[in-house]
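Peptidyl-prolyl cis-trans isomerase (Morella rubra), 159 aa
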Amino acid sequence: MGKDAKAKDSGAKGKGKQAAGGADENASKGKGKGGKAADGLGTCTYVKDLCFHSIVLANYSARHILCEKQGKINEAYKKLQDGWLGNGDKVPPAEFAKLAQEYSECPSGKKGGDLGWFPRGKMAGPFQEVAFNTPVGATSAPFKSTHGYHIILAEGRKN
């Protein structure tokens, strides 16, 4: 009986070590190049992917008027103020489009200043900042970029 008990004990110990060894083996397989656990690397990759997708999927739709000279953009903005902004009203997109056709020096002026949908990161510097910070339906004040002077009408935002 004593011998059988020892055989069972040693067998149990052997199985225990094997199970523990199997766990260690799986853990070492999960390490990345830097020796980090697979869980840490997976979480990091997931966060990067999540952030990337949220940036790409945050799209914005706008119209704009672009003028090389500040005096010309101010003239267009005065018309917007006299017609709608001075009363606290929003500028109807069709009316903004008419002014863009009349004043804008950008090729999009022919299409009423319509820029369509664009993701964050596509437009340069101040234009992007103003575009993404102007509430939908609102019109920005004139501002300067490397391309000239702009007024933006924010038309939509989608994720």
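The two ends are 73 Å apart (CA to CA). DSSP finds five helices and four strands in the chain. ok done for today
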